[in-house]
Amino acid sequence: MTDLVSLEIVFDDETDAAIRAEWDALAAAGLPSQARHTGETNRPHITMLVRPELGALEAGPLSAALPLELRLGAPLLFGVGRSRVIARSVVPSSRLLALHERVHAQAGPGGDVDHTRPGNWTPHVTLARRVALDRVGEALQVWAESSPVEVPARAVAIRRWETATRTVSAVA
């Protein structure tokens, strides 16, 4: 795997706890879940940018967009083959899209992973990875029984994730 850098939106404590409760419901049902990823840097987030390299960013213009009120929506499925990623959609507000554009403008050109580029981005929060096709229905049922379809959310910071060192640092 190529080493990558990503910029991610993270949430206030209440939103973080609500998403972790969804992770826990899936895990309690014996299903794949982000709750099973026990690394200390694992936390609910929205990925805005992924690329091989990223220089320093000016935090001021990004911090000005925070906190950001969001709405978590219905589940999404990503992937091909014999398994899927289950994620919670994030309703794209004009403020969220403007922040996403600002992040990419400030980062400049740099070989972004295609699905994070403006115009191709689907904002979401991952709930589970590698869910076998024959268990997707079960996972969605567990999610539906444990979570309201829409949840108010609040983004409070932007972090930088470095895959090479498995570290995070605050950006804004």
Low-pLDDT regions: none
Average pLDDT across residues? 92
Give the helix/strand class. Answer: alpha+beta
Distance between the termini: 28 Å
CATH superfamily: Cyclic phosphodiesterase
Listing every helix as H and every strand as E from the N terminus to the C terminus, the arrangement reads EHEHEEHEHEE
Q: Indicate the CATH class.
A: Alpha Beta
Please name the CATH architecture.
Alpha-Beta Complex
- Estimate the global geometry from the Cα principal axes: globular
Strand content: 25-35%
Helical stretch tally: 4
- Main beta-sheet strand count, sense and barrel state: 7 strands, antiparallel
CATH overall fold name:
Cyclic Phosphodiesterase, Chain: A
Q: Level of helix content?
A: 25-40%
Whole-number count of domains: 1
How many distinct beta strands?
Answer: 7
- Determine Rg (CA atoms, Å): 16 Å
Report on the architecture of this protein:
There is one protein chain. This protein has 172 residues and is α+β, with helices and mostly antiparallel strands. It has one domain: Cyclic Phosphodiesterase, Chain: A. It is 27% helix and 34% strand. The protein contains 4 helices and 7 strands, in the order βαβαββαβαββ. The chain has helices at 13-28, 59-63, 94-107, 136-146, and strands at residues 5-11, 45-51, 68-78, 83-90, 124-132, 151-162, 167-170. Strands 1, 2, 3, 4, 5, 6 and 7 form a 7-stranded antiparallel sheet that branches. Strand 6 (151-162) and strand 7 (167-170) form a beta hairpin. Helix 1 packs across helix 4. The two termini are 28 Å apart. The mean pLDDT is 92.
